[in-house]
């Protein structure tokens, strides 16, 4: 399970970075999706390939930042978290912890 989360952490960096940059190719077709909140402001799309490499896209109506986490047990301690956003000057930041 730890190896899978390490792969996911690396994959998320590669997948989220193109979402923040303009002029990138269209994202791959992701077969699965769900709104994560009752007001439909957080939309998650995902898929996996034959090697079980997972791809995620998170669309959020936000004022400048978003965080997304993975946990093998459903709790914050020990989870892998991705945080990204846009500074007021337009530059982006992205962090995996």
Automatic annotation (TrEMBL):
CDD domains: DOMON_DOH. Keywords: Signal. Residues 1-23 form the signal peptide. GO terms for cellular component: extracellular space; secretory granule membrane. The keyword Methyltransferase does not apply. GO terms for biological process: dopamine catabolic process; norepinephrine biosynthetic process; octopamine biosynthetic process. Pfam families: DOMON (PF03351). Residues 40-97 form the DOMON domain. The gene is Moxd2. GO terms for molecular function: copper ion binding; dopamine beta-monooxygenase activity. This is MOXD2 protein. It comes from the Eukaryota.
């Amino acid at each position: 399970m730890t190896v899978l989360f390490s792969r996911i952490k690396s994959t998320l960096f590669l997948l989220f970075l193109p979402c923040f940059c303009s002029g990138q190719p269209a994202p791959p077709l992701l077969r699965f999706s769900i709104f994560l909140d009752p007001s439909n402001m957080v939309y998650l799309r995902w898929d996996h390939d034959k090697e079980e490499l997972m791809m995620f896209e998170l669309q959020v109506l936000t004022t400048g930042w978003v965080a997304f986490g993975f946990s093998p047990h459903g709790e914050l301690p020990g989870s892998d978290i991705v945080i990204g956003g846009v500074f007021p000057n337009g530059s982006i930041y992205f962090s995996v912890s």
